[in-house]
C-alpha cells in the first residue's frame, strides 16, 4: 500500500548513490563525460535535428546516439518504436543499473523529471493533424509514445520491475526535484531503493520557444561572463540508483557518493523571470544545507544553474553572494552548461552526476569559454582544469514557474 | 484513521463551477449535454463537454499572473480556492505554509497547439507570450503566485492515477512537517487536438475538461479522513491493464455493503460487479483523465461529508499507465 505511509527502514537514513548513468553531447557513459567535464570541453554545434533557418540561433548541443541500444528485457518490437528521448533515458538507466549491481526489484519506485517527454512525436502528430486532417496513419502511436509515462513504462519493461512511477515536470528543475524526491523517500524510510533521473531531447517547439523569448545565444553560452548573451540548449539524460546506506553496505555495493541534502522553494515573482534578489534560490540553498546539517562554509564546490541568460546569472550570483557571505571569495563555482548546454528537465540529474564525478575524481569542472567574469560574482568561477580537494558539492537547478531546487553531495571515502 | 484529513473540496466541471454543481449532476445521473467543437480541415466535428462560463467573472482573474493564463490555469485556481476556503487568506499572508501539487496528463494543450501552429507558420514570429504558458507547471506556478506561497510546488504528469500519487506526496509532505497544509489539484483542458486524439482510441468517449481539488491537513477537525491508497499497478509488458486493475481491486477490497464506490468506468466500458452504491463521474462528465480522477475523489469525500455514506472507495484504472485505488472514511474523532 502507498498509504498509510510506510516507515519500515528507519526514519533518518543516509542516502547513497550506487549507480549512475549519463548521456550528453559529450558522449554516452560516465568515463567519456568525466573526461569531457574535467577538461571543460564544449559540445555545441549547428542544429541538424530540425530546420533552424528562421531562428535567431542555429546551434545546440546535440547527441549522436549509438546505432544499437544495450540489450534489456524490452521486446524487440518495442525497441524499434523508441524515439530520441526514450533512447537517451534507456542508455543512462542501463549504465546506472549495471553499475549498481541491482537485481530485479518487484516494487521499485521510479522518479523521473522531464519537461516535454517525447515532444517531437507530439509535434509530428499536430503537423499531420493540421496538414493532412483525414490521414490517421501512425497518429495513435504518436499519441501514446509522446507522453512521459510511456518512457517511464518502457524503463520498467526494460528492467522488468514495476512500482510507483512519479513523473515530476517542474520545468528546468525537474531533474533535481526527481532526485530530491527520491532522496526524501529513502531518508524518511518510505523506500530502501529508488531509481531516479531526468531526461529531455531537443525538439523544435522548445527551441523555437526559447528563441521567441530571445533567451538563446547565437554563440556557445558563457555562464557568468559579463558579456553573456543567452543560453544554449542541449539534450541528454542521467539516471541514478539511490539506496539506503545500510542496504548498500549489506550487499557490499560500490558507493559513488552520498546525497546529504535537498531543498526546494518557489519564486512567485514571474512565470519566466526570477526575482532579482534571488530569495527563492537563497531559500532553496538554505533548506538543503539545513537538511544536510552543514553551513555554506562547508561547501567546497558549487555547480551553478548558470544558464548564461542575463537575468538568471545575475540573480543566482546575488543569491550565492548572500548565502555564502564571506565564504563566497573562497567558493569555486562553475556552470557545466558551458560544456553541454541547458538540458532542461535533464539538467539537474546530469549536474548531480557531474558533482559525483568531481567528488570522486577530486577535480573542478571548468568553463573554458568564459572571457570576463561578471563583477557581480563575488566568488571565483572555475576557468581551467583544476585538481582540488573537495568533500562536499552543491548543485542548483532553477526553472520556469519559479521552481528552485538544490542538492548537496558528499564524497564517499 | 491514519492522520491525514480532507479539509476542503473544489471542482470546476462541465456541470459548472463548484462542488455543488458537480454533486447535482451526479445526483441526476444523466450524461451532460455535449458541445460541438470544430476540427480544422475536417468536415466532421468533435463532441466535447466543456466547462460553462462562470456565473460571474471570478475575482482572481484580476491578478496580473492570471489575466493571460489559459483556461487550465483558471480552472486550477478556482478549484483550489474553493477547496482552501478561508485558509487561502492565511496562506497569502504567510501565516500558513502550503504545499502545492498539480497533476495532469495532457497539460496546457491549447496554448501548446497555438504556439506550435505559429512555429509551423514562421518560427521567427512565434509569440513569446504564449510559449511560457505551454510549460506543464504553468498552472501550479500561477496558483503559487496567486497564493503568494514560496513553499514546495510540484507538477506531476501521468495518467488518471497520478492524482492519487499526488495525494500520497501530500501525505508525505504533511507527515514530514514540511508544510501545514497541501492542496492537490487534478486538471485538464478541452481542445480539439486532445478530443481528436482520444477519438483514435475510444470513438464513443466524449472528452471533457475542468479541475478537481482536495485540501489536506493533519488537523483532525475535518469530517473526512484518508484511510488507504493501494499500490500503483502499472500496465507493463508482463502485467496488462486488466491484470493491473484486478490486483488493485483485490488490494482495495470489497468493502462493506454500505460503502460507496466511485469508479473510473466510462460510457463505453463494462462494469466490474460492485453490488453496492456506485458513482461513475466519467459517464456524466466525459473523459477528463486526471481531472476525472480528482472528481472521483471529490465525489467520494463529498458523499461522506453529506453523511450519505460512512466510507467511499475510489477505483482508478487509468488511460495508459496504472491502476490505483483509495479509500476515504468518515472521521469518527470529530
- The number of distinct helices of chain A, counting runs of at least 4 residues, comes to 13
Question: Mind telling me which CATH architecture of the largest domain in chain B this is?
Answer: 3-Layer(aba) Sandwich
* Separation, N- and C-terminal Cα atoms of chain B: 12 Å
CATH architecture label of the largest domain in chain A: 3-Layer(aba) Sandwich
What kind of sheet is the major sheet of chain A? 11 strands, mixed
Number of strands of chain B: 15
Multimeric state:
heterodimer
H/E topology pattern of chain B: EEHEEHHEHHEHEHEEEEHEEHHEE
Report the mean per-residue pLDDT of chain B as an integer. 94
**Would you identify the regions of chain A where 5 or more consecutive residues have pLDDT less than 50?**
none
Task: State the secondary-structure class of chain B.
Answer: alpha/beta
Shape of chain B: globular
Q: Assign the CATH class of the largest domain in chain B.
A: Alpha Beta
CATH superfamily of the largest domain in chain A: Thiolase/Chalcone synthase
How many domains would you count in the coordinates of chain B?
2
Following the backbone from N to C, one meets helices and strands of chain A in this order, namely EEHEEHHEHHHEHEHEHEHEHEHHEEEE
Mean pLDDT of chain A: 96
CATH topology of the largest domain in chain A: Peroxisomal Thiolase, Chain A, domain 1
End-to-end distance of chain A, in Å?
37 Å
Written overview of the protein:
Chain A has two domains: 15-250, 3-Layer(aba) Sandwich (Peroxisomal Thiolase, Chain A, domain 1); 262-407, Thiolase/Chalcone synthase (Peroxisomal Thiolase, Chain A, domain 1). In chain A, 35% of the residues lie in helices and 18% in strands. Chain A has 13 helices and 15 strands. Chain B is 33% helix and 24% strand. Chain B has helices at residues 19-28, 71-84, 87-92, 109-121, 138-146, 162-176, 192-199, 241-252, 281-285, 289-305, and strands spanning 5-13, 16-17, 35-37, 46-49, 98-104, 153-157, 181-188, 207-208, 210-217, 224-229, 233-234, 260-263, 277-279, 311-317, 322-330. The radius of gyration of chain B is 19 Å and the shape is globular. Chain B has ten helices and 15 strands. In chain B, the strands form two sheets. In chain B, strands 1, 2, 5, 6, 7, 9, 10, 11, 12, 13, 14 and 15 form a twelve-stranded mixed sheet that branches. Chain B has two domains: 5-217, Peroxisomal Thiolase, Chain A, domain 1 (3-Layer(aba) Sandwich), CATH 3.40.47; 224-330, no CATH class. Chain B starts with a strand and ends with a strand. The chains are: A alpha/beta (413), B alpha/beta (334). Chains A and B meet through helix 4, helix 5, helix 6, strand 6 and helix 7 of A and helix 4, helix 5, strand 6, helix 6 and helix 7 of B.
